[in-house]
Amino acid sequence: MSAKGVTQEYANSIIYDLEKAFWDERGKGARFRVTTIGRDYLRDKCLPQIKSKSLKDIIETIGRILQEEGIAENVSHEKDEQLLHMQVQGCLHQSVEKKMLSHGIEPFTCIPANILALAIEETLGYQVELSEIKIEDGKCRMLLVVFEKRPGE
C-alpha cells in the first residue's frame, strides 16, 4: 500500500459495493445485520473519551469526536422523550447512501448513527434502534428510538 493511503472515493466505492451486495442478498433484512458496524472504532476512539453517564453528554461527546476525526462537518441532535433526532452534515460516507438512493434503495445503515447507538448501549445499557434514515438538503437525518428499559421490563 502506498504511504499516502487510499482515497475517500475508493473507500466509499468499496463500502457501496459491500452494502449493495448485502442488500441484493438480504433486502430490507440487511438493516438488522449492520447495526454493529463501527463498534471497533467506538471502543478504540470513543469510549475512552466518554466521561459521563449523562445521555446528553454521551451524544455531545460522540458528535465532537465525529467532527474532530473528519467523519462529519457538523452533528446536531434533538431529544423528544424516547425519540432522538440526529442530523449529520458533511458526512464522508454520504456519497454511498446517495448512490444507493440512485439505484432505488433507501439507506439502511449509517455509521455515525451506529456509533452513537452503540455508545448509548454500551455506556448506559439502553437499547437503541435506528428506525429511519433520510437525506434532505445535503444532510442525513436519522431517527433513533432510545429504550431506557427493554420492552416488557
Description:
By secondary structure, this protein is of the alpha+beta class. The protein has a single domain (8-147), classed as Muramoyl-pentapeptide Carboxypeptidase, domain 2 (2-Layer Sandwich), CATH 3.30.1380.20. The protein contains 5 helices and 4 strands. The protein has helices spanning 8-26, 39-46, 55-68, 94-102, 111-124, and strands at 74-80, 83-89, 127-136, 139-147. A 4-stranded antiparallel β-sheet has the order 1-2-4-3, with helices on one face. The radius of gyration is 15 Å and the shape is globular.
Concise account of the structure shown:
The protein has 153 residues and is an alpha+beta fold. The protein has helices spanning 8-26, 39-46, 55-68, 94-102, 111-124, and strands at residues 74-80, 83-89, 127-136, 139-147. Helix 1 (8-26) crosses helix 4 (94-102) and helix 3 (55-68) packs antiparallel against helix 5 (111-124).
SSE arrangement:
Blueprint: H1 8-26, H2 39-46, H3 55-68, E1 74-80, E2 83-89, H4 94-102, H5 111-124, E3 127-136, E4 139-147
Antiparallel strand pairs: 1-2, 2-4, 3-4
Helix pairs in contact: 1-4, 2-5, 3-5
